[in-house]
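Hey,

The postdoc asked me to send both predictions to you directly instead of through the lab channel. I've kept everything plain text so nothing gets mangled by the mail client. Protein one:
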Amino acid sequence: MTTALERGATMGRMKLRAIFSLMFFAVCLIVLRAQTPATPAAPQLVILDTDIGDDIDDAFALGLALESPELKLLGVTTEFGNTELRARLVDRYLQAVGRSDIAVAAGEPTKTNNVMTQAAYAKRSSNGKHADGEAFILQQIRAHPGQITLICIGPLFNVQGAIARDPATFKKLKRVVLMGGSVYRGYGGPNAPPIPEWNILNDPDGLKALLGSGVPVFMMPLDSTQIQLDQKAQAAIFSHGSPLTDQLTLLYHEWSGTGEWKTPTLFDPVAVTYAIRPDLCPAKPMRIEVDAKGNTQPVAGVPNAQVCLKSDEQGFLGFLLGRLLN
């Protein structure tokens, strides 16, 4: 007959075995979870709004968006000047890289004396009528409320028009990331005084409308976007020989015009990069006031934008080259 002491000892051993079994099971679960690959996050839904065809940086921005799996490009909308010809440029570009599945829409044309340096490339694309850019933006917002990042790398005519048509729908954007403005630095060196930046100069009312729309705004001004692509980096891209880099090569040489090396300033790709890697261009809350001349001045008051005043230039260039050279 077992004694009470023996029964107690047996029960104690059983409890210890149960505890060790549970601990072993928990350790196994932790190890399995550590070895199981994390489920990749769903790509961000984005629309790129661009005045592609004048400067060359829009072409690099579009290339970066295409080569970034973190983004799902719902469409490209063109604005400023001859928007149909700009849309034809995008058509040819997308077809050449096997992405004709991406929608292309054209905004309302506007008057401009600015030279479209890459018009010859665009004119070799078929001449068809494109969908209404402003309507396309609103249609996509209705289909994906609260999910779309609108990346704006040109004057904000399509934004202004979409807000005027349907402000309640426009407000359902997740956010707007834009290249535009000059807060403390203008064109040129780090000590250059602020000056109306091109995109805002050509449509100051567009930025006013955007800042009052209720949509979160993330702004990449001249302060953080004057990053140059040196000859070594250009040579790596232009000699790469992929369908994408071949298009960049063609467009670069039309932009340069003379056949000599020119140094692109990569204003617009910084906005695309921010949508993916905000750590490369940390933003801080500011209140930005826009005047009729396109000046974007910081003022006291409730913030209406997140503004990046300094970017990690080497980190950005490494990220861009890594993507374009795949």
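Protein two:
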Amino acid sequence: MRVRIKRFSGGVFKTEEFEVDVPEGSTVLDVLFKIKEEIDPTLSFRAMCRASICGTCAVKVNGEPKLACNTKVEGEDLTLEPIDNAVPLKDLIVDQEVVFSRLREGKVWVVPKEGEIGLSAGPLGRASDCILCGICDSVCPSLLEDRAFGGPSFFTKVYRILEDPRDGKGEERLKDLVPFKAQSCVHCNNCNVYCPKGCMPERWIKLIESKLSQKGYIQKRTEDFGFLGF
């Protein structure tokens, strides 16, 4: 198999090719480890999913963002690139700190109520499955247009907290979300299409936007960029 990798180093990108013997059933992550262990030990990528930290191995595979660990290799050619909408650090590794910075700024954590409260999976739905891989943000045109926008991963985590019966702040936390401009979402559904866990981020953005609008914190956006997606 011919594997092309778009690598970043010293402030510039370059594409390198590798010939790799790939066993049947291999994943993209298997291929990356094979290159690193047998051909080029300088290749840099994230794979902390093998240490039970999901979502760290997101890369573009033949032009589409995917998790390297669960993407099977098919065909004779493979092109790997860093995900978009993120600052490249080294080869396929991008800076993911901005995701966590937004969560800290938005105070996206449970403020416990007093007493013991049961929790069922029902109210939290798919929002609780988010692994912060960054794929939804990487395909979000609104983040390119407006960096103040929180992004799909941020609002997915926010909705999960808003619907958590253990949270003592409830909808009082909505005012903390105003700077993150939920109304900047153009509802193109790219995030829904590419989310590897099926979390449906656009749905949660829409619901949060409605809550903010009903409370008078924002006005809903009435125009878009003139397209439905990439």
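Summary for protein two, as requested: The mean pLDDT is 90.

Thanks,
C.
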